[in-house]
Amino acid sequence: MCGFAGFINPGRSAGEMKAVASSMGDTIIHRGPDDAGTWVEEGTGVALAHRRLSVVDLSAAGHQPMESSSGRYVIAFNGEIYNHHQLREQLNTSLSQPPSWRGHSDTETLLAAFEQMGIRQTLEACVGMFAIALWDREERQLTLVRDRFGEKPLYYGWVNNAFVFASELKSLRCYPGFDNSVSREALAAYLRFSHVPAPLTIHENIYKLEPASLVTIKGTRRESE
After folding, report:
1. Measured distance CA(98)–CA(91) in Å, rounded
2. Which of the residues 31, 45, 136, 141 has an alpha carbon 20 to 30 A from that of 216?
3. In 44-195, which ranges are E strands?
4. One pLDDT digit (tens) per residue for the chain, 225 residues
5. Catalytic residue among 1, 2, 68, 209
6. Active-site residue, 126 included
7. DSSP 103
């Protein structure tokens, strides 16, 4: 199953960021009991945490968060890319210098495709179920992506002046200073429909990323579609 969490908050030290990210990841240990990892970048305030359920590649080569071979991209990924072997073959045959593969995970395939094909073209080529948090160290841009049918969950929003995201709401609730009130709009929708429709969640300023959607965050500017 796997799960991930993270945030952007330039005001924290690397040690603080790692501690907070680890705490957020530990709340969803049930999603990934096989392995845990964190990655932080102090200058930008970006932190990623991942809980892994080993399925495609059982070795340490599938550890996340994972960096691309060039170091440009860092990913936290939940899901499965069914056609990742075909994507690898495409990269191997179309490039004059094929990627130097470290393992057999679909996560590594995604990273190589992002580097060579770009984010949009890679996502269009993917067949599978997924939620992705991808940090572009060159552009200093975070991209959150959810699969076409919304099989894998992904939440995002603002807590205590930080941008936060996770596979489950409980990870966001453990971010320091969380005091987001109950959303009256979401509560009314729940009483009317017996569920909270996307993109709303029960908390103010926290949203569900809708199926077949992506959100990008760069600096203090927010872009979505």
Report:
1. 6
2. 31
3. 46-52, 66-67, 73-81, 128-136, 141-146, 155-159, 162-166
4. 799 999 999 988 999 999 999 999 999 999 988 889 999 999 899 999 999 876 765 667 779 999 999 999 999 999 999 999 999 999 998 877 777 888 889 999 999 999 999 999 999 999 999 999 999 999 999 999 999 999 999 999 999 999 999 999 999 999 999 999 999 999 999 999 999 999 999 999 999 999 999 999 986 434 444
5. 2
6. no
7. S
Nearest 5°: phi and psi at 206? -125, 135
Are 23 and 170 in contact by the 8 Å Cβ rule? The answer is no
Instruction: Give the whole-angstrom CA distance, residue 208 versus residue 222.
Output: 16
Q: What is the rounded CA–CA span in Å between residue 137 and residue 112?
A: 15
214 in Cβ contact with 225 (< 8 Å): yes
| DSSP class of 28 | T
> One-letter amino acid identity for 184?
R
Measured CA to CA, the distance from residue 27 to residue 171 in angstroms comes to 6
DSSP state of 175: S
Please give the Cα distance from 177 to 190 (Å, whole number). 26
The model's pTM:
0.92
Kindly list the distances between the CA atom of residue 151 and the CA atoms of 67, 127, 154, 207, 209, in Å, as whole numbers in the listed order: 25, 12, 10, 16, 11
Give the amino acid at 119: I
